[in-house]
Design goal:
alpha+beta; Arc Repressor Mutant, subunit A; 4-stranded mixed β-sheet; globular
Length: 194
Amino acid sequence: MRATPPLLLPLIRSNTVGELLAWLYLHPDDEYSTTDLAARVGASQSTVSREADRLSDAGLTRERRHGNLRLIRADTSTIVAKPLTDLLAVTYGPAAVLPPLLEGIAGIEAAYIYGSWAARYANTAGAQPKDVDVIVVGTADEDALYDAARTAEQTLGREVNISRIPAASWAESSDPFVTSLRGKPLYPLKRSVS
């Protein structure tokens, strides 16, 4: 049985491939091990390795070995690099752009994308997202979150709205806003990356 193509970008095989490409093309100066990419996209290392083989065979990535590490980066010298980067920014970009921006902000216990982008990622039908909605759980500085949102907008080409909620409110099951959010798709922005 064939998997349903992802609604964010039906041209690709899976959300994993979309996220891998986004991490590589939206951070073109960085190179990643398959272990690091697996942690970033929430997939197994064997899946990432298999997809990395396909991307390399297609000429979309470059690789080098450093001891036992297989290091992968986007091949930005190809004719498809610029249009592919633009397409990835407006589809899978939030998954690759937001985590590093939020990583350096103290007081974030959890962070999720919700709303239309998370729904499309979860293959819930609807129009392409016009903005990206993020909920941050914790005590993060609101000015730092505002700055992160504006920085993300430059790459993603759309409005980014980041809201903050105290951990106690997030844990409280009687809060109607929290109950509503938890009943809909959420995309976790904080994953354990070694």
